[in-house]
Structure formats: structure tokens, C-alpha cells
């Protein structure tokens, strides 16, 4: 009923062959199935996988960036804190040095004062001793001078008189 | 163009089952080439593509673009293998006849399978049937049936005609373009083989027409795929 040479197009004459139609459909469908399994499927799979990979990478990069930013901020803060600490330490050291200097000076001054005092005392003592010695010598000297003076001044008469007096005194006592 | 087709009539003793063996042969060759191309391209898949994989991914993206311009990607995703296979299969089929034409004993064996109206029409019919199938599958029988009475009920006969007209135009457009190209190529080839003068005179037009045929083959493959997706979107949309 379906004559294969119904459709005649142009001079060449085309036969609408049912067999060709069936063949083309079958071949196309088989090709479609095979390609879907062996070519398009894997190809689309890798494309989707790449998309996901890129999305993941973008996420990771974003995460890393924020992490790095956070760390940088932290480091900045730490540097600031360290700088402050250093400043404080220097300040403290300066203060300590100043107070130590003050105390050393005070101690030195006191020591000097003490040494001066002891020196003065020693001088005083020496002076006293010297005076004492001088006084002793003056006494003996004066006695010696006096005896010399007395020796010279005492005449024979006086001497006799003195002797007599002493004798008399002694006699009377007996 | 005195070539005859290598007919094989009444196959398997069935009176209406005739084969044009060259068509079957060329269809098989096309399918094998496309399959090898696809398998080679996707054989060593890498995340960082190079060479043929890169090209095939470009093709995939191209078909994605075709589908995406007609429907949203969520519904269009399932038609990607169909679109890809249509595009590559028809393109390779078109190109085969441009490369060369071989006839043995006045039987034309090597030609574009798409220069046969039966094949293009069956492909077109398959596409139209698929659009109707997906129309029923995605929208339900009721919604699908209503589609024939929109926007106005009296347009129903035209809607029915439209389906057949679509099939005819889709198939015959492809056939006509490729067949015309082959006829001219055949004429030029005959001119070149006719003598020295013909060879000199026919050389440049032959080259130009071959280049143009390549272009036509690519364009027609694109148009076929594009229209497939247009018809598909038309059937799938709810508001038409």
C-alpha cells in the first residue's frame, strides 16, 4: 500500500524508502544512547565536577583570604602591644636608673659625711692629746724653770735660814 | 548526476521494505565517525581540558546556549544529549558529502546521508514526535490537549497542520540545502573532469563552493538543533 516510489522529487527521482527511514531512526537512537553513555555523560560529568571544583576553590580562597586578613590584623595588634611593652620597659628602666642614681648619690653623700665626721673626731682627739701632752710638759718645764729660778735667787743666808727652818721643824716634830 | 542509487528492494521478503544501501552505509559511517569523535574526546577527561576535550566542551557549551535560549536550564537539561547528538550527527553527515562523492558502477555510494529526503524527514518526524511526547510527559495529557485549542479554539485544525508542516519544513530544509550543495558539487566535478579548460575554470568555483558547503553544513546542523529546541520549548511551555 505504501509504494516506495510515491514521492518523486525532481528529475533525479527520490525513493522514500521505508528501510532508510527505519535505518536512520535506529542508527540515530543507538548513536544517541551510545554517545550519552560514552561521551556526553562523562563530558558533562567532568564539566560539572570542574564547576564544583572551581566553586570550592573560590570558597577556599575566600576563606583563606579572610583568615589571612584576620591573622594580619592579629599580628598588627601584637606588634602594637609589643611596641607598647617595649616602651613601658624602657620607661621602667629609666625610672629605676634614676632612682638608683639618686640612692647612690645619697649613700655616697652620707658616706662622705661619715668619713668627714670621723676625721673631725680624730682630729679633735689628737688635738686633745696634744694639748694634754703639752700641758704635762708645760708643768714639768715650769717646775724646772721655777727650780732654776729659785736656785739662782736663793742666797746663802736664805738657804741657811731655810735649812734651819726645816731642821727646826724636824726637831720640833721629834 | 546520472548516478543511480544502490537499491535493495523487498528486504527480508517484505514488499514495502526497501533499502537504499548507500544511505544505510553513509548513516553508519556518520554514526561511527561521530561516536569515535565523542569517545576520543571524552577518553582522557581532565579537569584542566586540552585539545579535543576543550573543543567538545565548547560544543557542549554551545548546545547549552541553544537550549538555554529557548527554555530554562532545569527543564532543558534532559535535552542536552539529544541536542548534542543532533548537532554533531547532522554536521558530520553534511560534511561527508562535501569532502568527496564516490560512485561505483554508476551507483552513488559516498554522499551525505542528509541529502536524502527520507532520512531528513524521518529525523524531523522523530524530533516532532519527541516534542509531543515530552509535551504529554511534562504537562500532562489535559494540558497538552488544551495546547491545541489555544489561543483560540477554531485554530485547532491549523495546529494539527502545524505539526506536519513543522516536520516537513524541518526535514526538507536540511535536505534541500545539502542536496543543492551536492548537485552543484557534482556539476563542478563533472566540469573539472571534462577537460583541461574545464579543470582550470572549475577549480576556483569548486573550492569556493566546497567552503560554502562546509558553512552551509554547519549552519544547517545548528538550525536543525535550534528548531528542535524551539519546538520542544513550544510544547513544554504552559502559557501557549
From TrEMBL, chain A:
The keyword Nuclease does not apply. The keyword Acyltransferase does not apply. InterPro entries: ATP_synth_B-like_membr_sf (IPR028987), ATP_synth_b/b'su_bac/chlpt (IPR002146), ATP_synth_F0_bsu_bac (IPR005864), ATP_synthase_B_chain (IPR050059). The chain crosses the membrane at residues 6-35. One of its GO terms (molecular function) is proton-transporting ATP synthase activity, rotational mechanism. It is found in: Cell membrane; Endomembrane system. Keywords: ATP synthesis, Cell membrane, CF(0), Coiled coil, Hydrogen ion transport, Ion transport, Membrane, Transmembrane, Transmembrane helix, Transport. It is a single-pass membrane protein. Its main location: membrane. Residues 51-140 form a coiled coil. GO terms for cellular component: endomembrane system; plasma membrane; proton-transporting ATP synthase complex. Signal peptide: none annotated. PANTHER family: ATP SYNTHASE SUBUNIT B, ATP SYNTHASE SUBUNIT B', CHLOROPLASTIC. F-type ATPases have 2 components, F(1) - the catalytic core - and F(0) - the membrane proton channel. F(1) has five subunits: alpha(3), beta(3), gamma(1), delta(1), epsilon(1). F(0) has three main subunits: a(1), b(2) and c(10-14). The alpha and beta chains form an alternating ring which encloses part of the gamma chain. F(1) is attached to F(0) by a central stalk formed by the gamma and epsilon chains, while a peripheral stalk is formed by the delta and b chains. F(1)F(0) ATP synthase produces ATP from ADP in the presence of a proton or sodium gradient. F-type ATPases consist of two structural domains, F(1) containing the extramembraneous catalytic core and F(0) containing the membrane proton channel, linked together by a central stalk and a peripheral stalk. During catalysis, ATP synthesis in the catalytic domain of F(1) is coupled via a rotary mechanism of the central stalk subunits to proton translocation. Component of the F(0) channel, it forms part of the peripheral stalk, linking F(1) to F(0). Belongs to the ATPase B chain family. This is ATP synthase subunit b. The lineage of its organism: Bacteria, Bacillati, Bacillota, Bacilli, Bacillales.
Automatic annotation (TrEMBL), chain B:
One of its GO terms (molecular function) is proton-transporting ATP synthase activity, rotational mechanism. Its main location: membrane. Keywords: ATP synthesis, Cell membrane, CF(0), Hydrogen ion transport, Ion transport, Membrane, Transmembrane, Transmembrane helix, Transport. The chain crosses the membrane at residues 20-41, 79-99, 119-136, 183-206, 212-233. It is a multi-pass membrane protein. Belongs to the ATPase A chain family. Key component of the proton channel; it plays a direct role in the translocation of protons across the membrane. This is ATP synthase subunit a. It comes from Salirhabdus euzebyi. The lineage of its organism: Bacteria, Bacillati, Bacillota, Bacilli, Bacillales.
